Amino acid sequence: MTSDYRAAAKVAEDYYDSPDADAFYAAIWGGEDIHVGIYAAADEPIREASARTVTEMAARLEGLKPGARVLDMGAGYGGAARHLAREHGAHVTCLNLSDAENARNRALTAEQGLEDRIEVIHGSFEDMPFDPDSFDIVWSQDAILHSGDRPRVLAEAVRVMKPGAALIFTDPMQADAIDDPAPLQPIYERIHLPDLGSVAFYRDRLKQLGLEEVKVERLTHQLRTHYDRVRQELAANRDSLKGKVSDAYVERMLKGLGHWVEGADAGHLAWGILHFRKG
Question: Lesser CB count within 10 Å: N end or C end of the chain?
Answer without folding.
Answer: C
